[in-house]
From TrEMBL:
Keyword Hydrolase in annotation: yes
Organism: Streptomyces rhizosphaericola
Residues in the signal sequence: 1-28
Keywords: Hydrolase, Signal
Residue intervals of the Endonuclease/exonuclease/phosphatase domain: 40-273
Coiled coil feature spans: none
Protein name: Metal-dependent hydrolase
Pfam families in the record: Exo_endo_phos
InterPro entries in the cross-refs: Endo/exonu/phosph_ase_sf, Endo/exonuclease/phosphatase, GPI-anchor_lipid_remodeler
Length: 285
């Protein structure tokens, strides 16, 4: 087993034993009609807002206002560097919000000081419901840490299984390639489809896709997923002009009741992206 796969599993074990503050959401099932669930996705820009000021308090406040049961985070630092004060952003946000956490690094670098924590950057799942299993999958990536990168499998595609009123729900969080050339995103979409096809039951994909809904490279996703269209752009946070952040659900397993892009209440905006929130009804067991 590679170090990339061992690290998330160890983090999950720690999260399940130590990071829950509070109790699962009081979401009640309607007999025969599914379970209501609020999900959200948010690119946290390593803790900084549009003003490039690191302020995790500001982001915690924004996330708290969403009142979501499950949240996918992107651009998450864990002891990464000075820009985020060497802090564990996913762990801190989970503790403040009273949620379980699974962090899946894209990069896991040797510590700056011997014996120190590894410098990591990736995505995360926050959940009011217990995370019963999790995995950090590899998808095609073009590394930003390699001076001469070539597309290759690398970790950072998170999958967490949460049990919602007895129903197992697969939650995936991703951050697709940002470059104008869609070639890597095309490969990542194919990888995403392959990984998700291996799981049965309700599935939710959350993330920053770095492409708008009509982009040709995203078209295969919409064959099996429903885009919870919030009807508003998400990027940049100040005067957004395009939607590149998504909540998507497996067809036939969940109903989208409504979706929206909340206004930011924070001066300077808490991130350079806006969140997407969706109210779902999850079906099946």
């Amino acid at each position: 087993m590679s170090p990339h796969r061992r690290i998330p599993q160890l983090l999950l074990a720690a999260a399940l034993s130590a990071t829950l503050i509070g109790s699962p959401a009081a979401t009640a099932a309607t007999p025969g009609r599914g379970v209501p669930l609020r999900v959200a996705t948010y690119n946290i820009h390593a803790g900084a807002g549009m003003d490039n000021v690191f302020d995790l308090d500001r982001q915690a406040d924004e996330l708290r206002l969403l009142d979501a049961d499950v949240i996918g985070l992107q651009e998450v630092d864990r002891h990464w560097g000075a820009r985020s004060e060497w802090r564990d952003l996913a762990g801190e946000l989970a503790q403040r919000l009273g949620m379980y956490v699974f962090f899946a690094p894209v990069y896991s670098l040797d510590p700056a000081r011997p014996g120190g924590p590894r410098a990591e950057f990736g995505v995360a799942v926050l959940s009011r419901y217990r995370i019963v299993s999790a995995e950090n999958h590899e998808i095609t990536r073009l590394s930003t840490q390699d001076p001469d990168p070539a597309p290759a499998p690398a970790p950072g595609f998170a999958e967490a299984v949460v049990r919602v009123e007895g129903r197992p729900l697969h939650v995936y969080v991703t951050h697709l390639d940002y470059r104008p050339d869609p070639a890597v995103r095309t490969a990542q979409v194919a990888d995403t489809q392959r990984i998700m096809a291996g799981d049965r039951g309700p599935k939710v994909l959350l993330g920053d896709f770095n492409a708008e809904p009509g982009a040709p490279e995203l078209a295969p996703l919409w064959e099996g997923l429903t885009d919870a269209d919030p009807g508003a752009p998400t990027f940049p946070a100040r005067d957004p002009v395009k939607r590149i952040d998504y909540v998507a659900v497996a067809k036939g397993t969940a109903e989208v009741r409504r979706a929206w892009v909340p206004e930011s209440a924070a001066p300077g905006h808490a991130s350079d992206h806006r969140a997407v929130v969706a109210d779902l009804v999850v079906r099946g067991r």
